[in-house]
Specification:
By secondary structure, the protein is mainly beta. Helix content is 6%, strand content 43%.
Length: 156
């Protein structure tokens, strides 16, 4: 999958939660890699092998990004991560991929990711970390024609 051409298909409302215990066992009977459940309004384009971005944590830039080509930035607080996998952040309308500096305040990033445009950003601009979940299965919700249960995992 070419991550550089990712585009937004829809922006439905939803509620995401990590599965545990019996919920996870039941979900993994449908798909072995399911570890999250997202309940959302049905929208065209919600299929397995697509991704869902979920805003998780917010921070602020410690200093301005005055260049559109700079790949280093400072945030005020280290963003906690369970591992060293790359992750996505958003500053204003720009999407960036954090490729190094995990667990620190100094991050190395790829600018203008997923079709966004690299722009300059002011000191104090909001930095929102996005969880990236990969859709594994889409199931109807009983008695709720407009809702779907989306089982997701953390790997493609």
């Amino acid at each position: 999958m070419d991550d550089t051409t990712w585009t937004t298909v829809s922006r439905p409302w939803g509620n995401a939660k990590a599965l545990n215990g019996v919920e996870r066992t039941h979900a993994q009977a449908i798909h072995a890699e399911a570890s999250y459940e997202v309940m959302m309004r049905y929208s065209g384009g919600i299929f397995p092998n697509r991704r869902i971005l979920i805003p998780q944590l917010a921070d602020v830039l410690d200093s301005a990004l005055s260049s559109t080509t700079g790949t280093s930035l400072e945030v005020s607080v280290a963003i906690p991560r369970p591992d060293d996998r790359d992750y996505t952040i958003k500053i204003d309308a720009e999407t960036l991929i954090v490729t190094a500096g995990h667990h620190t305040t100094g991050l190395t990033v790829t600018r203008g990711a997923y079709g966004s445009t690299a722009t300059t950003h002011s000191s104090g601009a909001a930095v929102v970390q996005h969880g990236q979940l990969y859709i594994k299965a889409v199931l109807p919700v009983a008695n709720k024609r407009s809702q779907v249960r989306v089982l997701c995992g953390e790997t493609a």
